[in-house]
Amino acid sequence: MSFIAHLPGPLPLVQAATTEELANDPEAYCLNWLLEEVSTSINTAAAGGNASLMAIG
Q1: What is the pLDDT of residues 35-48, one digit of tens each?
Q2: DSSP states of the chain as a string?
Q3: Phi/psi at 6 (5° precision)
Q4: For residues 24 and 26, what is the distance between their CA atoms, to the nearest angstrom?
Q5: d(C-alpha 57, C-alpha 42), whole Å
Q6: Model pTM?
Q7: Whole-angstrom Cα distance, residue 11 to residue 20?
C-alpha cells in the first residue's frame, strides 16, 4: 500500500532507484520531474488590449 497517496494535498511524483541502477543507467530518474516549471502571465487587457502600452516605462 502506498502511504504517499494518503498524504493531504496534491499527490507528489515519486521516483526511486538504487545506487546500482543509477550506476548502470544514468537516466534511471526522469530528470524532467525534478524541475519546477514557472510561468509569467501579463494581463494586457489592463492596457486596453494594447500590449505595446505595457512596454512603456
Answers
A1: 777 787 777 676 66
A2: --SGGGSSSSPPP-----HHHHHH-TTSS-GGGGS--------GGGGTT-GGGGG--
A3: -90, -5
A4: 7
A5: 15
A6: 0.37
A7: 27
